[in-house]
Amino acid sequence: MIRTLAYGLPRLGPNREYKRLLEGFWSGSISREDFLEGLEALEALRLATYREQVDLYPAGELSLYDPMLDLAVALGLYPLDPGDLEGYYALARGKEALPLRKWFGTNYHYLVPRLPERPRYTPQPGWGLPYPVGRNQALKEGLPTLLGPYTLLRMAQNPPDRLGAHLEALTEAYVELVQPVRGRTVLLQEPALGLDGAEEDLPHLLAFYGTLAQEVSLVLLPYYLPPAPRVVEALATLPLRGLGVILAPGVSLPQVPKGTALVVEVVEGLGVWRTNLLALGEVLSPLAETGQEVWVAPKAPLYHLPWEVAEPLPGALAGRLAFARERLKELALLKAILLTRTTSQESPPSPEEETAFAQARAWYTPPPPWDFRPSPVPASRPPREERSKAQQNLALPLFPTTTIGSFPQTKELRDFRKRLRSRALDQTAYWLHIQEAIRANIRLQEELGLDVLVHGEPERSDMVEFFAERLEGFYPTQKGFVLSYGSRVWRPPILFAPPRRREPLVLRETLFAQSLTPKPVKAILTGPITLAAWSYLPQGVEFREAVIALAEALREEVKEVASHGIRVVQVDEPALLEKLPLKAKERPGYLALVGEAFLRVVGELPPEVQVHLHLCYSDYAALRPFLEVMDPDVVSLEGARQDPSFLQTLTGLSLGLGPGAFDVHSPLEVPAEEILTRLQAYLRYLPAERLWVNPDCGLKTRKPEEALANLKNMVEAAKRLRKAFGGSHAHGS
Ligand code: MET
Ligand SMILES: [Zn+2]
């Protein structure tokens, strides 16, 4: 028997309904009743969309904010009364909110729950299965679904050293959770089974799943990363209703007991290219012919894709993309192909079969070749002493002050951009407005007395989308929104051909800014790792290849910028550490790639050009080797919210370091006194001549008056610090 299973259809909805509902409810413009009704309608639409194309799909999947939070609440980690939406949202946003973290290397952020010290879990009535939204429908249709205990334990703020006791307690709790749907088929989502270390935890896991499988018909679904072969083999011995296996090169499908369906995960959930269904049919039909029950499914939940392809596409992309809804269609088509292959080998194909094959054939076109040959990797930059010496002509004081790039974006600016898009404003008029904004930013920075200036990035809607708009080979979508966290959405651009500069990327804006001031202005570029990480990659092209090609495009820009006399270049790589591979054996290769890509971008710059690297919040424990291979002159970090002791891991590196004078995510004013204390704390870990003074990220999301107040205080703090160090002698090393 062949069936289709899908999961994770975007809760955002076809027209960002989810965002509107959440934000309306939070702001008070949508009443509680209307809010819940709206969510129910959205869930009904999602179910109808599934139903139209696939056989099996989850019910009650529509989270109120985040599925991990739902699970944490259902298990009583944060006791809430039934229906206490205010309490729920207090955990998701606001002062006491749980921290956010990236989810399995994707761009979705989940709320990171805290496990109880003692393994005790008490399911909360009203928050478990069926979940608050889609409650009525969930009892009639679809598979009730839960995130599994292993994913909870591995992804928590405080993963336990030994899982045994927690898994034992969770067994009881999950058994209680599934009582309302006892005997039904339940979909347990366990992406963490693909992480390193799952093998060691197997005995406890087998006990857990084995027990739960006595209560419900259990479908166990790992996704994103293929679990180790030994893990798959062991899981295949359990009396499950279904076991998910990610089809990947080198993965062999396990033997499962009679009565267990193999959930073969075959279509992409993280990429946007249509699937070669005929080729897949060839691979799967021998399995289907054995009589094995097969369910075809995606390799990842579908919410990392936009809802559907809903805009006219340029020629190179037309007929080649599949977003979430198209993935459902692919599963249906694949099923049709498999059915005809297994039933009618002997007899001539029926008209239906012919249609299925014809459709599958027309569905897919092979990708054009990735026509890109990188130039040789440049030799490493001149030694640091030579660079430091050459950079003394920047004439920077001790504790140089700077910002990370973006200045507050006003509504006016956003309106100008909208009007440019709709052609109500022409390029020339738009450029005049941008110049106006740059002029104001430069004037402000000079008045404040900052040392290294920026143009303020008024022309950028988003640090990736902006570059995608200016590089050939990228398609920045109009309507391809996906959820980032909560109600926040973004539009990942699609890289479909080797990126080439169609026009200068940052040159015009940077030179204009530099023309207004004698102080050095930084040219600021989003780095190749981040551009690749926050885009959909070309079909059949590895992350590595995309990164190298992007680095090459940036290299040209950087050279041009320097040849026009710009003396400081900053590469922004906020995605650097979040892209650190989840599997330890892939990390050395990644480190090498990061080093090579950075060198390709800045390696040919003369020693007098100062190279800055900016990184956002991440786990800095892993940072040091990256700074060693990248070897920037200055690095700025998003560290203002961390304990300064995180710098311990970076002592002895001979580069300028700006760990962050204040947190840009808070609207609060930080007094100069407090900033000074923070800077002094940093000086416990690094020598004075290395400390840079800067906000910990861009100021784009702040109100102008908030940014101004804190920048003023920051410059004041730097001045006082210099005084304490006996005046402002030149910066050097
Ligand atoms: C998320 S990192 C942002 C860096 C960028 N240059 C900015 O200042 O906004
Ligand atoms: Zn940042």
Strand order of the largest sheet: 1-10-9-8-7-6-5-2
Write out the distinct hetero groups bound to the structure.
methionine, zinc ion
CATH topology of the largest domain: TIM Barrel
C-alpha Rg (nearest Å)? 27 Å
**What about the largest sheet?**
8 strands, parallel
How far is the N terminus from the C terminus? 71 Å
Overall tally of domains: 2
Mean pLDDT: 94
CATH class of the largest domain: Alpha Beta
Helix proportion: 25-40%
- Which runs of at least 5 residues are low in confidence (pLDDT < 50)? none
Strand content: 5-15%
- In DSSP terms (H or I, runs of 4 or more residues), the helix count works out at 23
How would you characterize the overall build of this protein?
Residues 365-381 have a biased composition (Pro residues). Its EC number is 2.1.1.14. InterPro entries: Cbl-indep_Met_Synth_N, Cobalamin-indep_Met_synthase, Met_Synth_C/arc, UROD/MetE-like_sf. One of its GO terms (biological process) is methylation. Residues 365-390 are annotated as: Disordered. The strands form five sheets. Strands 1-10-9-8-7-6-5-2 form an eight-stranded parallel beta sheet. A five-stranded parallel beta sheet has the order 15-16-17-18-19. The N and C termini lie far apart (71 Å). The longest helix is centred in the N-terminal third of the chain and has 22 residues, at 32-53. The chain is globular, with a radius of gyration of 27 Å. The chain is built from 23 helices and 19 strands. It has two domains: 2-269 and 284-300, TIM Barrel (Alpha-Beta Barrel), CATH 3.20.20; 388-461 and 507-724, TIM Barrel, CATH 3.20.20.210. It is an alpha/beta fold.
